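**User:**
Make up any protein.

**Assistant:**
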Amino acid sequence: MNKFCNLLGLRRLLEYRPISTRLTADGKEVPKRKNLENRITLIGTDNSVSITDLKNAENLSIRRELKLVKIQDVDAKTRRPIYKLMTNSEYHSEELERRKEKQESRQKNSIRGQKLLSISSKIGEHDLMTGVKKMVKLLDKQYEVKIIIAGDGDNASHTSERIYSVIEKNIKSSGQVVQKRNKGNSLRFQLLPLRENSSHTQNDLDSNKDKDDKGPL
């Protein structure tokens, strides 16, 4: 009799339960499996690592007034995205560093090669300006130019600095000076070309400015 009642109760339960509900043999509901699709690896401000879901991480960042930053799409080992909680200062510092690396990478990729020019500190004015024109041409062709000013004579240091100033002044429209240093009796530095996009943008701005100047006031 009891067995019959149990079967009858189970039948009624099945009739009124949604089809999607899973039951065990004795009529108990099977616990639903947790949805792990939104699970993430979260790195705290103290570099502690925890596993949570994205919604909880977002709520935590709001409560603590922190930035929730995605630092990796999918971890190869855990198959979960990685997020990090950052303070505003950490976030801005990280963003500046990322922009700097991106800019350096773009600039490095745009350089076609390197050229080395050696100049004596006793070089004449005419020969110096000829050399400067050559540097500008190389920079315009997106070459990095390494310069060595070889000191010669008692006043070599002062003369080398004067030559450096002339070069720096005349290549500004095509490049920039980096890594200036003294090594023995020589003064060394590199000339890096300006990015082509920057040059084109500046030319466009100058062109637009000229057009505006010609227009009515």
